[in-house]
Amino acid sequence: MKEVRARLRPEHRAWLRNPGTHKVVVRLGGPLLDAAGAMAGTLLVVEAQSMQAVQEFMNDDPYCQSEMFEQIEIKRWQWSLGQPQSENLEKT
Question: Is residue 77 situated within a structural domain?
């Protein structure tokens, strides 16, 4: 999948920064690395109105559409340390 990742990376990164009509804001993101430092996945921290909004956002990600990921886990998380001021997703 190295070639697919390299080809889709600009589109994937643009998607994370501008997710169209999805009411999702990517707060943090980057590749997960194995012990040798090779890419072994992706971690995204997003803010959204619902788990369904996150699932729909992920479904439209170019990496997901290319079936690059073997699995996707979406979990709720409470950001309690180092949180910047949140955008109001109700207004977007």
Answer: no
